[in-house]
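Regression report. Comparing outputs from two consecutive submissions.

Submission 1:
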Amino acid sequence: MSNLMLTFLVGVSFFISAISKDVGSMVANALPVFDSATWTVLLVTAVGLLVAMTPFGKLKGTEEVSNIILYVEIALIASRADISAMGNAPVWLAAGFLILLIHVAVMVILAKVIKMDIFTCAVASLANVGGTATAPVLAGAYSSALVPVGILMALLGNIIGTPGGAFVGHLMSLIG
């Protein structure tokens, strides 16, 4: 893989990211159902899925570049985390643990009913709880050949989880 190809792939990814951020802000102003960050994630996901089905998605080096950008995303998310105020909202913290408990119960029941292996169960769980950044990392821990499976599950978790999370957020706003 040449340096020119690597530079091209990174440049295209940053370009799509920048365009999606701007378009996400415009869509959030026109349709305030979600904030601009959520619209940006949805747009990047949609563009990524569409581009992956084209010959561009088969270029040599796309997997390596996507892994590097994924690790950068994880680092950026972690660097913005502020856990100092966690104790100020015990009801919301308890609600989060209740949601995780329900998630664990559903995953265990589904794993038993459809006889899901531990890899699929763990990656699907992390795709729902941890999101796009963490599921491919867990899949890569099993085997680098499984990273695309983790990315696909994470994208599906994003596509299904965003409206589901908005619904749960709406329910919680009715309580609080």
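Submission 2:
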Amino acid sequence: MRMLVVDDEVDIANMLAEYFRMEGYEVATANDGAAALEAVSASRGGHGAFDIILLDVNMPNMDGFEVCRRIREHLSCPIIFLTARVEDVDQIDGFAAGADDYVLKPFSLEVLGRRVAAHMAREGRARRQEQAVRFFRGLTIDYGSRTVEVADRPVDLTKLEFDLVALLSKRPGQVFDREAIYERVWGWDAVGDPSQVREHVRRIRNKLAAAGLDEDPIETVWGVGYRWTAK
């Protein structure tokens, strides 16, 4: 499991990294918000996305709430805030930003370790569900093996094309604007233009039709973006 520890106190970050490495985790550290976002971006670029993030709330320049909000646009892994702020408003802000849990400083490493293990167990169950096969009007999507078939005929999709199909098909009926699709599929630091989304949707449609799919599963919501309509 890959973990990211974000804390502006270097000694705390190093202590946590050492502890969780002994627990079998692969751990990266960052000491400010910008470095955390860079680490997340690098992980999505081919090094393997993080499975859990420990995130300090009180950091200079960019606090944990803002870092969490920006990470949450692209990753769904558990995020645990490390904080000495116990006021209710902070908890509300944290959960609104996308946090999964709070651990108050000072904390016991053993207790934190158990909290992390509990989140990873729940995440494992969710991933097993996520890797299910879904069927849509003659279209089969296997999220675990990242394959798409039309009537048992495989459809050769690129990585970006499959990621786009997965994003839409996991949330049938939800409208995604082109900018949101571009950020989630290409990444917030991608160099390009959201207009690329239109071209990739066109290619997906052509490939599905060529494989024999009668109905287009992706609806264009004019002036906005796209949604998955297949059931």
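Expected: both submissions complete independently.
Actual: both completed, but the second showed a warning that disappeared on reload.
Relevant detail on submission 2: Residues 109-130 form the longest helix (22 residues).
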